[in-house]
Amino acid sequence: MSFTIAIIGRPNVGKSTLFNRLVGQKLALVDDEPGVTRDRREGQAKLYDLDFTIIDTAGLDEGAKGSLTARMQEQTETAIELADALMFVIDARVGLTPTDRAFADFARKANKPVVLVANKAEGKHGELGAMESYALGLGDPVQISAEHGEGMGDLHEALSALVPATSEEDDEAEDNEDISEEEAAQRPIRVAIVGRPNAGKSTLINHLLGEERLLTSPEAGTTRDSIAVEITWQGRRFRVFDTAGLRRRSRIEEKLEKLSVADALRAVRFAEVVVMMMDAQNKFEEQDLRIADLVEREGRAIVLAVNKWDLVERKPNQISRLRTDADHWLPQVKGAPIVAVSGLMGEGIDRLMIAIQQAYAVWNRRLPTAALNRWFEQAIQASPPPAVSGRRLKLNYITQVKARPPSFVLFCSRADAIPRSYLRYLTNSLRETFDLPGTPIRITLREKANPFAHKRKRPS
Description:
Order of helices and strands: EHEEHEHEHEHHHEHEEHEHEHEHHEEHE
Distance between the termini: 82 Å
Shape: elongated
Number of helices: 14
Number of strands: 15
């Protein structure tokens, strides 16, 4: 079982910067504004020969009020309960504050090993602030600069007494381990939940988990980081990313919101299936269409989820109308699964999870070569490519080069002259013939080599 360390401390001391340094990626948002981190975030950290799980937590000011702040504190307390040890971070340039002293008491009451970290300790000012931290009674401070990577050796030495080292034999055995197709099929499906602000993304994930893992609020923009959580549903594992709400670019003004949106876009690129959530009372708005277009351009499987269905007055054939509206507004992902859900009440959750698995299967599909060739001949006979400038276009053959998403290469003459409308015809025909609803389909044109191109013309 992995050893877990929670990073705690007041706002703006560099906890998320240290988290990113230890996991080796910019997973957590970092900004000069205090209180950027709200949900707890987990990652796999590596420091030389030490491997452990690290949890980034919200920085809380003593005496801060409000329901959102109270729930942020609950997230921090949960992280401390889950952790085997604590990493208490202070800002060495600022020195000790009353909030630091309150957090020190909080850490002592947890009755767990504590490593005191004096961050931003570069320079003379940092040295003085680090010396002040002895007054906390938590032992010798480890002086580091998380931003510049200084003092990591000292941090390793402090953690070595707590974290079991990974042996070279274990690393070698893990590297040489063969993974069967069955084991690969059991790897978690990466799912990103995206949508406009306040569409109910975090509420849905909390219902899937059966706990208040992610902060929710009627206020739009509660989620900032893209938080990943592990979910098991009917024996199948999922790694689900909650993301910040995506607004129109013209309405994104604050630097922090720009960082949140960029983080959400990275989650889409990392995902295999993207669930695009819409508000049932305001569905298929312009921003919804933009988000769906982004997912299609990134080549990800897509599932449409219409949330807050419990607030809609029920009428006959509502689901059929949803299907018709989706195909009308989103022709580029025609046939994409659409599910009516209520993240708050749990309505439609099973249908959504089934739709995610079906979309994932279609996204991974490879077509039999013989069936693909038969379809290609019939499609050309049913609707031959148009003549351009009086010259006939010749389509030779098509082959699938990869899945995830299904991608094909079409060999032809005069690739630049084939109209987009004809490619759309082939794409739609592929969807219908091979049952590929919703998933992006890529057709790349390639001109067949001219066997006589190397021969020179005879002199006249």
